[in-house]
Amino acid sequence: xxxxxxxxxxxxxxxxxxxxxxxxxxxxxxxxxxxxxxxxxxxxxxxxxxxxxxxxxxxxxxxxxxxxxxxxxxxxxxxxxxxxxxxxxxxxxxxxxxxxxxxxxxxxxxxxxxxxxxxxxxxxxxxxxxxxxxxxxxxxxxxxxxxxxxxxxxxxxxxxxxxxxxxxxxxxxxxxxxxxxxxxxxxxxxxxxxxxxxxxxxxxxxxxxxxxxxxxxxxxxxxxxxxxxxxxxxxxxxxxxxxxxxxxxxxxxxxxxxxxxxxxxxxxxxxxxxxxxxxxxxxxxxxxxxxxxxxxxxxxxxxxxxxxxxxxxxxxxxxxxxxxxxxxxxxxxxxxxxxxxxxxxxxxxxxxxxxxxxxxxxxxxxxxxxxxxxxxxxxxxxxxxxxxxxxxxxxxxxxxxxxxxxxxxxxxxxxxxxxxxxxxxxxxxxxxxxxxxxxxxxxxxxxxxxxxxxxxxxxxxxxxxxxxxxxxxxxxxxxxxxxxx
Length: 485
Ligand SMILES: Cc1cc2nc3c(=O)[nH]c(=O)nc-3n(C[C@H](O)[C@H](O)[C@H](O)COP(=O)(O)O)c2cc1C
Fold this sequence. Notes:
Blueprint: E1 11-17, H1 41-53, E2 58-62, H2 80-83, H3 96-101, E3 107-113, H4 119-132, E4 137-142, H5 147-152, H6 161-181, H7 191-195, E5 211-212, E6 217-218, E7 233-236, H8 241-250, E8 253-256, H9 261-277, E9 286-295, H10 299-310, H11 315-326, H12 345-357, H13 368-375, E10 382-386, H14 388-402, E11 406-410, H15 416-431, H16 446-450, H17 478-481
Parallel strand pairs: 1-2, 1-11, 2-3, 3-4, 4-7, 7-8, 8-9, 9-10, 9-11
Antiparallel strand pairs: 5-6
Helix pairs in contact: 4-6, 6-8, 8-9, 9-14, 11-13, 14-15
């Protein structure tokens, strides 16, 4: 009998946001949901501890820099605010050191925008958190998509999409220089040398980066001494051509949303192919698919549970989210408009994609009501509703067909969705050899645990940012001569 290959162990993240309704507008009204306690640090500490006990890899916090104000707009938050649809929201970065203090091994992905946060301050904030978490922070790089964010940062409208990625690319080179190349690895003196009066660090081993590019001018040096990971673990979610190219250059983990593994596979292949062309190990890019999971003892019980939670959800909030994600205001269309045939090509394409891939929704009319209903819980990721066995079968199918490495699990109720996953799904995944029993590196960095490799704390040498590393013993030459980006 042929020996069975060991199965790929899944990476599991909890996907959340510090807001009443992340992917579940209105559900904060459910007695089982803690969305309305998003601004209480204990909510996140309790969640982090619970997820760490279950050995989740990370909690990943989304963030945006304005309101979803397109629906019934322009600039109207009336449908958004009552639903708590990603508004109000607070900056997730501040909570991370507190979550790290309450845990040891779980990591934290935090979203920050290359379009609105200048690179010097950003590099400093993330180095700070990398120090305070002992290397357990990741950066979800976004270029941002909300018009309201552009206006909040003084622009009349958003910078053009591909231009945002060009800015992001230079931004990354600036922060790599600060993180990897401004301080030599051995710049800070040993305690012994410090006590002997040699000084805190060797000033010859701390240098300016003198970055002068098309978009940024940053002399440095970096204010923070080298933190455990230097560059925080790099996450990204780009689906456009420019987004995938950027991801292939920079990302160590990529988030993808989709409804069928067959349709996600070409994107996965294209990213891995582009990474190979960029000289990187294609398997070193971890691909994480979005999923919203509702469990029950049986498939029928799970469906009933889903319907029960859905009662609390707010369709107006869902349409507000749709408006922000796409820029399209569906209130401008008649209630009976079938968006599979609408003249706006972007909406038509998206809705036809859903119609083709969402189970049980091929033949229905995709009007506003259907779109809202579809987006009420879990947004635009795949929705898996069923018994632990059915859901585990489906996750396995995703890994096999789409070649994904793990899942980003959003909550229908917080923390109810995660409680159910921990109690019912993880034992099933473990029985199948699909999920680890413990962190590969307890107390380790995010990079070590994502790659399940002790000692893999820094960017690998085939990564774009590694060209700026200033290693112990190296002359202060290479970096200054490095091509300016
Ligand atoms: C799982 C997931 C999480 C995301 N989180 C955020 C976020 O927190 N903030 C944000 O501005 N964009 C977020 N995005 C949007 C992406 O950054 C990106 O704008 C989107 O995937 C479209 O990619 P494109 O610009 O290459 O077309 C997320 C996307 C996905 C799939």
